[in-house]
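Document type: protein sequence-to-structure record

Subject area: structural biology

Format: plain text, a pair of labelled lines:
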Amino acid sequence: MKLTKSQLKKIIKEEFQSVIEAYDPPLPRSTELPGDKSPPSPEEQRMDTLSGQYEDDMRHHLLVGIEVPDFDGSMMPLDFFLSKLGNYVVTGDVSEKQAGNIIRQIQYAMRVDPNDLGYVHEEDSTEEEDFR
């Protein structure tokens, strides 16, 4: 069975998403209140739109902006690595179980330490001060 690079990329992205969902099920968005049937206010709509945009930006950055080690130790963009990993699974060079373990290792390595983020420990400031 011969796959084009775009077909393989699509399969890998779908598999990557399914692995993420399987090991880190999505939680309800903070803007979704269970049982609240009233129409959202303009502020709630804006908050939901911004949250969705931030999520999309992060998802894109995670796939194309982060480099991970290839099997030979050289660094490569995550989306290329996922394509290569999928190819190895399809050809039998890597089992699906091994691929799942590799994905979990990458996910674990991508966890953020709050001490690395300056905004977590900052004192309250005005919005104007944040952008100086």
Summary: The longest strand covers residues 67-69. Residues 5-25+41-111 form one domain. The helical segments are 5-23, 42-64, 78-91, 96-109, 118-121, 127-130. The chain has a mean pLDDT of 78.
